[in-house]
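Risk register update: the risk of archive-format incompatibility is retired. Evidence:
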Amino acid sequence: MKFTDGYWLTRPGLTPLYAVEVDDLRGDDDAGTLSVYAPTAAVRHRGDTLNLAMLTLRFSAPREGVIKVHVERHAGAAQHGPDFVKLVDASFSPTITVDDDGGVFQSGELRARVSRSGPWHLDFELGDTVLTSSLPRSVGHITGADGTWVHQQLSIEPGERIYGLGERFGAFVKNGQVVDTWNADGGTSSEQAYKNIPFYLSSRGYGVFVDDPANVSFEVGSEVNSRMQFSVEGESLDYYVIAGPTPKDVLRRYTALTGRPAEVPAWSFGLWLTTSFTASYDEQTVNAFVDGMAERDIPLSVFHYDCFWMREFQWTDFEWDARYFPDPEGQLARLHEKDLHVSAWINPYIAQRSALFAEAAEAGYLLKRTDGSIWQWDLWQAGMGLVDFTNPAASQWYIRKLETLMDQGIDAFKTDFGERIPVDDVVWFDGSDPRRMHNYYAKLYNGAVFHALEKRRGKGDAIVFARSATAGCQQYPVHWGGDSDSSFASMAESLRGGLSLAMSGFGYWSHDIGGFEGTPDPGLFKRWLAFGLLSSHSRLHGSDSVRVPWAFDEESVVIAREFTKLKMRLMPYLAHSASQASTEGTPMMRPMVLEFPDDRGGYDADCQYMLGDALLVAPIFTADGSVQYYLPEGRWTSLLDASVQDGYRWVAESHGYHSLPLRVRPGTVLPLGAVDDRPDYDWANGVTLHCFELADGFDAVTVVPGLDGGPETTFRVRRDGDVITAVSENAHAPWALQAGDAIARADGVGEISVTVSGPGGTGIRAGGER
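Archived output:
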C-alpha cells in the first residue's frame, strides 16, 4: 500500500506520524528486551512533549541470529488471533548495551544498533557489514478515513535483489513489485497467489519475516526506490530480521523459527497419475490408465482420484459415487496389489445436498455469519458451507471422515482449495479476527489433514498435495503450483512460482505436467514431461482432458518412460537432497542465487534451477527447442550425453525432445541407483558413484540415505593424480565407482580405485547408461 504522493507529499486523506528521533532507550536483561521510545516530532524543550505522539520499538530475540522488532503507537488496541506459531529457543539470551551513543541489541552475530542523537537511524549489522537500515521517515503510523496502518521501511542497496514472498508467478526478482499477501484462487497468470508468505530473502544475506497472517502489503522499491516497505492495518507491527550470511543460513534460521518441512515418504518421489479434474472416468477407466502405464513400462507410484470420485452437488461428502465405483474397497485393494499408493481429492467445503451438511450444521461445525446463520455460497457446488477448523470438535469430525477413507485404503489426500475464505459478516468459533483467519485457514486445514495421515501412517510416511498455504505450512508437504494453462508461457510462470516458494521456506514443490487448463500439444507435453520429472514431485494432471502419455503420441510414451526411470535411478541423490529440506530447511529445487550466492550472474536466472546441490536443470520453454541458461564457474558435464561446457557465462543450445540442459556441477560424486522402476528401494544396494571433474586432491564424503529412516551408507572419495579411490566402512551391499569410461566394483565395505586420463564424467541416457 502506498502512502505517499511521490517522494515529498502524502496521499490525500492520510496523516502520517514518523519516528523522528530517540527520546530514551531502556534495556531489560531479565526480559531480554531493548525498548526504544521515538517521538514523532523533534523535542527541543519540555513543552514540546505535550500533545505529541510517540512510537515505541521493542527488540527481542527468539533465537540466535534472529531479532524481533515490535513497533506500536497505542498499546491498548484489541488483539485477536490467530497468530503464527514461532518456535522459540528459551535457552538463548541476547546481549543488550545502552550508553551515551545509543543502544545495541545483539543476537549471535546479528546486531540492531540505534543512534541516540540526530535523526532517526537504526542499522542491522552482521559482523562488519550493515545489512539494511531504517532511516528517517521509515517507521510510520498512518491514519486515514478507513483505519490506521503501521509501516516499516528498510533500505535496499544498489544491486541488491529481493526474493520470496510466497509462490508468485511473476518476475522471480521482486524489486519494483507491489505484493499483497492475500490468498486468492487466481491461477498462475496474475499477481494473485495461492500461497502468500510474508517473508522475503535478500541477496545480501538476510531475511525479514513480517509476523501477521492478514494482508501484509509490500512495496519492494516501488514507493521509495531504495527501500523495502511493509505495512499492516492496526496499531502495531511485528517483524523479524534473520541473519545469514548466506541465503541457506537465512532459510535454516527462518524454518527453525516457523517450522521445518516434514520428511516425505520415498514412494512419493515416483510418478503420480490422476484421473484429471472433470474428464469422464470410472473404475474401468482407472484400470485402463494403470494397466496402460504398466504395459508401456512407465513406472507409476501413485494413482490419484480427483473430484468426481464423489457424486456431483455433494462435495465434500467422502462417499464414493456408486454409479462409477461400485466396489471402492476392492478397487483400492487391487491397486495396492499392483504396488501403487492411492490419493483422493478433498476440500474443506460441504455441499448442501450432502447428508453431511445437515449433520455438520446441527453440530455447529460450519462457519457462521454474525446473525448466527450458516455462511453459504454456490461457487463450485450448490449451497456449500465451510468447515470451521477453529472448532476442535469440527476438526475431529472432519478427520473421522478421512479415517474412514484411510480404512478403505487411501494413502494420501490432495487438499485442494482453502483460499476463498470469507472475511465479511462471519464469526469463527474461537473468535478469531476474520481478516487474520483468511490466510491462516490454510494452515489449520492442511495441518489437520497432514497430522491425521501422520497419526495413521507414522512420521515420514505422511503426505498431502496442497494448493493453499501461509507461513508455517511448509511443515505439511507437498504443495503444487495450482491452475496453469497448457502453454510454454505458463510452464515458465509455474517454475517462477516454485522458485519463489523455495525462497520462502518450502522444501518440496510440484506442478501439473502438461498444464491444467486446456490440452497441450504433443511438443509442449513432451517438454513439460522432462521438467516435471526433474522436479521434487511429479504429477500428470489436467482439467477436462487426460494426461496419459499415449493420448499425445508414441514419442511421449518413450519420453515419459525415459525420464521417469532416470528419476528413479537418481533416488540415492534425491533422497539425500530431501533430507536437507527437513534438517536444514534447504529446498530440493534451488534458485541459482541460493546455491551460488556470490555469483551475480545467476541472481536473475529464473528459467533454471539446481535440483539438489549438484544438478543444474534448464527446462525448455520454446517450441523449437532453443534454450539459454547460465552456468556458474567451472566445467559442467551433461548427465545425458557427457558433453562439457565451460561456465561463468550464458549458454545457448538447441535440444530435441529427449534432452534438455541437465548438467552436473564440477567436483561432484553423483550416486546413481541400480533400480529404475520404483523410488522406494534399497538405494545403496548396487549404487554407482559417478565422478565429474574431480580436481587433483579432491577428498569428500558422499552419503546415500537408508530407506525409511534406515542407516545411511557413506563413501569417501579421493583423487590423487590419475587415480580416483573410494572407500566405504559401512556399505552393506555391492557398489561401484565410475570415472570416465573406467569402472570398478566392490562387493561391500573396503576400498576400490580407478585410473583415468582426465577429470572425466559419464553420460547417462534418460532410460539408462550410455
